[in-house]
Protein 1
Amino acid sequence: MDPIRPIMLLMDQRTLDYYSKNAGELTQRYESASSQLANRFRSCFSPGGRVLDVGCGSGRDLAELHRQGFDVFGIEGTPAMAEIAVDLHPELRERISVGLLPEFDPPDGGEFDAVLCSAVLMHIGASDLFNAALSIKRCLKLNGRLLLTVPSERGDLVVEERDAGGRLFKNYAAGFLQLLFERLGFRLIDQWSNDDALNRVGIRWVNLLFHLGSVANTRPIDQIEAVLNYDRKTATYKYALFRALSEIATQSTNAVIWRGSSTAELPVALVAENWIQYYWPIVSSEQFIPQMNGEEIASPKQIKFRASLRALTDAHSNSGAYSGFRLQRNRNELSLEGRRLLAKATKDVTSAIVNGPVAFAGVGSERGAIFSYDRARKAILIPADLWLELSHLGYWISQAVILQWAEKTTTLGPNLDVAETLKLLIAKEDVRSTEEARRFFSKYEDLECVWTGAAIRKKFDVDHVIPFDLWRNNDVWNLLPASPQANAKKSNKLPSLALLRSRKHQICRYWTALRAHNRPQFDKEAQTLITLEDENWADLLFGELCAAIEVTALQRGIVRWNG
């Protein structure tokens, strides 16, 4: 029997080529250095447990695990290195397979007690990282352990996140990886750093130990609840802030920049954009709807941005409320006066955010102020544990916040009804966006159902890939043509991962056409998921779409549709 069993070959080709070409030299180098993890294996993993080493390289760590009494298996992406590993460590014969992230079938039936993935994820491109994490999860039993190691510093990169040998080294922050795996049901239970085992200058490593199980974290949810229920609130600003943070955390996971493992940095402009949407129907209502204590229609005491936002809403009253304004803004079609009014309203809204809830949320509590503001970078600084909580529970938090916001509003003035206020706070489906999409696709040659491939030239529906009832999203990337039959069967279900992959070519084809038709709008709205900077933007956007759908399904128990 061949001791090296092939599974699947995927990953960055230039990186693979480097390891294949230099397998002998690299193996000698790795074997000459002592493992930085050897003295941690017994404390990280259950004694005698089944352990899978993903990217086992020379077999050094795998052999040490075997020596310590673990039942070990490994996968390695380079056949040459896998062969050398078996020659150096004969006890690993028939225990090493050739395989690569992002996708592989777990060897020996899976069901491992632990997975070691040391110095591997840095070689996985951003569009494949979520699938890589899913593949790792599939290998583990419930209550299993995962030990990850990635560079925290890498001073030898020359261009485009590659070293002189052409190897890809993605700079994934520890906080980003924690969020990625915790969204899949893991819990971070330990983290530590160490110098490079080969004593290379400018290189350090961070190690993350996860547990896969149902035991809940100690969450900052009580802190959120305290701010919403017990903090002094003279205005509705804190509701608006937590609603914006919740929706951004669950729908725009790439919006933040991680500052180490303790802080997430979020551009205040993104929060201000959400506030303009939330408050638009309130300030434009024919009935005056107060949003702070003592606010009246003729009183000088009003929310900071009411006048400037009302000027903006009045100027676009013939455009179809916020949805019409949004289309013009995203297409760069605002008039000079419209841009001036938007700039003024944005400035006032930003000031209200920064000098209101960002400055005072949590002040007076035992833990103290929650947020801080970086004026140089125009960014809100959020504790990492709070951002993770918002990412996990953002949908439910936002729903609770909207209800509390409506209830608070009814206490601020006479003749206000909770149900009517809720209608203003909850976005309605934007008919204009679907009509615009219909007009575009009606002129599209060779139109076919995005889900079935059936020709739909004469009759088609515009389908929300992520249903509107789940995300309330009318961005152009989320509106694609489908046959009436397929659209009816899909309804409010989420497409399965298998269906998405089978239809990737057509989805990306439609995206390419939509982007060519109106690039400013497409790029602006795609920022919900990712900033389109790379030339392989369609692959990256598709990867983010799949991740968003998978997490939404997991968090909210949504039925999947296989087509």
Protein 2
Amino acid sequence: MRLKLLLFVCLAIALPLTVAAKERIIPVPSADHPGNVFLEGEEVVILLPEGWDGAWQAVDYDGKLVAKGHGSGRAQLGPLPVGYYEVQHPAKESQPPISLCVLARLAMPTPAGSPIGCDVGMSWFSTPSNMSALAGLCTLAGLNWVRDRLSWAEMEQVPFAYLHASRYDVAADAQSKAGLQVLQVNHNTPQWAKRMDGRMPPDLRHAYHFYRNIAARWKGKVLAFEPWNEADVSFGNCTGSEIAVWQKATYWGLKAGNPTITVCLQPFAIRRPTTLADFHANQAWPYFDTYNFHNYEDFDKYAAVFADHRAVSAGRPLWVTETCRPVQWSGETKLQEPSRADLRVQAERLVKTFALSIYEGASVVFYFFLPHYVEGQIQFGLLRPDLTPRPAFAALAAVGRLLADARPAGKLQTDQPHLQVFAFHAKPDGAERLVLVAWADKEVAPLRLPQKPVAVFNLLGRAVPPETELNIGSAPWFIVLEKESKTALSLQPPPEAPPRLAGEPSPLVLQLLLPRKRVLLEESAYRIGSGKVERLPIFLYNFGPKDVACRLTVKGPADWQLQLPQKASVAAGGRTEMSLELTPPEKAEALQTILIEADGGAAGRCLLSFRLKPEQ
């Protein structure tokens, strides 16, 4: 199929990573309080479902009675302190309780640099009628970034013809109008563009064209884009080399459509060493503004997870765009609700997830997942299908408010082996402070402070009496100190960011295209024969505005025969196919790396590194 590409190449180097979608204001709930989310000081009035009659009672997070009444239609609870609550029907145990929460009022608009985000998946898990309500809940919780989902296959069902109006447009409007910064991600391809044995299109010009158009379409609304999702596992089953090639091509499409967009790295799902090394060898760092990955590992492995990704991040900001330690649901299948004990665990883990991730160096953390969502027996959602909250939503709001604009200051060194205390420079309730997030892994442990805190809050964001000695259990506490208090604490510094590697993106991109059956995923390599000639198809793309003539070189093992044309020309917006002819020696079995470089003069240099494993 002939591609009619309009190429507008922009070499934007220094780009803002936190540009607010809209001037922010301090959010307030809408009059109908979707999701039963209220602010402190408001009269709490809950609509009762049809058929609910007789007595009702309201209990807090700990099961303590806070209000009761009799009647139908609505329950008036009056003003309530910050926290999570349930309205129950004492005579009908089979009647699911109605949940609500009361949040503290934000003292300032959420800072544009705050690391607190959430995967909302609004386009896929909400209807257009409730998207504005869901966006409003995000702002009340103090979220800065939200992550959405896009289907390329749905948006471009016919080549170069895009839907004029879609749920994705409604979601982008709702979230940007609320002042949220939106990250978008896609991980599918239209049937007309992909080959039968893979998810990604073999012709990278199709991807360039799509991302250029979609970036331009939502300019000013969608501020960041991940051009694929988890290509290292089942969403792509790609080698590190293939991921790097995809990143380079889609970078140019996104920047051509919107020069100010933040081009994120397609996020790694896991930290497979072979894939990361193969990716890094392709020197893709000029083609991503942020290094993105996902993390679902246990808390005691966070240091290793971040260290592995930090090592290949090239000094770019780390974005964790999916992370949590989920709980399971139990009981009725139609509800898919975790037990009361697991709801508490979910809330506690959420706070720990943010604290540990920010301490390890994450610039933005997207908790997975805001809406009701299950995989098998696992319940990820912080909200129920009717948008009413689980306790962890109140914990998310506490994080959004008390860790606003948080940056790691260090980890407190104590004589309590099970006590975890992380310090952050942050702006809780609008003031620059030092905020400690503290919990105990096992038994309750005492935390002694050098001075009385400015304030102390529980994991749901409710203030408790500040004391110089606190007994810390599994539920995290937020302890607010004067910002100068760091000098009085014994803090282990957070991990250092690696140096930023230099490099300029080139519009030239090299691609190896082999059948999926030849991929050795665990080794991030391709299977080839030994002792016989192999001809590998190599494509040279030009995403620049001018035709380019290139000099080509190929390097590999000394005992391999390698032949590649020394010169190649490629038109603007075009691609040129060539063949790499190679012959491994007899009985060669060791994994080897092949490196191809193209020097396009003023168009820059590009390289392609890939791994081959000869088999008998």
Protein 3
Amino acid sequence: MDRWYRNGAFYAVDVACFQDSDGDGVGDLQGLASRLDYLARLGVTAVWLHPLHESPRRDGGYDVIDHYTVDPRFGTLGDFAHLMNEADERGMRIVLDLVLNHTSDQHPWFLDACSAPDSPYRDWFLWSDEEPPDRFDGGVFPGVQQGIWSYHDQAGAWYRHRFYNFEPDLNTSNPAVRAELLKIVQFWLRLGVAGFRLDAAPFLIERKCGDGGPDFEFLRDLKEAISWRRGDAILLAEANVPADELLEYFGEADGAVSRLQMLFAFQLNQCLMLSMARGDAGPVSDVLRRLPELPRHAQWATFLRNHDEVDIGRLSEAERAEVFAAFGPKPEMQAYGRGLRRRLAPMLDGDQRRLRMSYSLQLTMPGTPVLRYGEEIGMGEDLDLEERQAIRTPMQWSNSVNGGFSEADADDLVAPVIGDGEYGYTRLNVTDQRRDPDSLLSWMERMLHTRREMPEIGVGDHETLDIGPHHVLVHRARVDGNTVLFLHNLADQACTLDLSAVVGDEDEPLDVATDSTYEKPCGLGQMQLHGYGYRWLRLRCRAGAPPFAEELGASQHSGS
């Protein structure tokens, strides 16, 4: 049985920056609900919402002070229920960010824990009476946050925080904490969410008391909790971990997933960035061969740009230098010594050919694509903002005031709208691109809908093929006897490919999506591919094509 998350598209939304409905300068749930038709037309099947909970928002909402509420700036639980109803009407699912590793230092649990050593919440956090020897080890934000332990005057002790010092770590080894976290999960499932994006999963399952490896059984407990409440709900984890740990996050029982259903494909993402920087398909081809075989119902979540920095920390130092030189040569474009705080369009100098080839590459990778809001129109970044905030600017809907995001005064906006230059809202917005059939937005719509008609990508077996020059990636996906073939040119020079070794005499390659119109090849040894070009080919038996193959012929050209 195919699962809903395996053949669709996730769209990541920061509600605060998406659409303001009441003119206070902050995006809200009613504003998001008013834009669901736009997302449905785009081809989105699931909307991943960044943290909605009440928060001081010193860290984009990941500093939670109440897991059971909606931040009043976004609306009420009634507004959330309305959003769920509107999403249901359009066949879209809502996936919620789940922040269980830490809270805000303003959370009632932490305030109570600091009030007295015998507080019932004292053991809900991690404390040390003496300055810990690992005080400066293992921080998530090197160069910004000094150390992982801070002294609290009222508590009279040191508390641990892997992230910022205003985000104390929860003691997830405490059974009472675990029980409460499971209640939070069940609460939101009752309100209809289709699953959760699990923030900072490796830190969540650290054993907080005593020695030992990661506590993967906690992931099993979470999976069981959601499965009993809603059988089709999913857990999508953020876990940028070594390759030998990946399968542990999925778990396996009787050949199927026993823990998480989805993981972000960080290794694939980093190799994609390296291949794009080099103009060489080698790194992505190699990582596709190395990806482990997943348990039944498990899935990768693919991305080019997420809501944090582009994390290339698992590349070698020399490889990181290559990516930095290509996409972020200035210090202000980099973050934490490991990543890029830029959007993809400016990283590629606004080159539409490279941009579309790159997204085509993402959309054909094994897994389910995740797009960040604004990617579909090629939004830019604001490097004047600190750290990760550079790519957390308001959505650009039109060339009207504040890009159509809000009617508030500019000084009252949750973040400044990009107003100047090539990526300013007067030159780059949804309304203008909606009117242009050759725009990136129109292209993305066609590609997402075409992808949904090719289930081989999401559920099939992928194989890379050694064909053509080093700058061309050729790979195929197969399921139930059907095969699709993908060609991507990561360099500017055109080339001719010989596919005769991989396409049998009984097959006839049929263009499904291409960067431009290609003449029908005289033979399989004369397959043309333009610079930064791509071709999606369905291989069909001459005796009879799949029912939808004829409808998806060369008329579905998706180039500009």
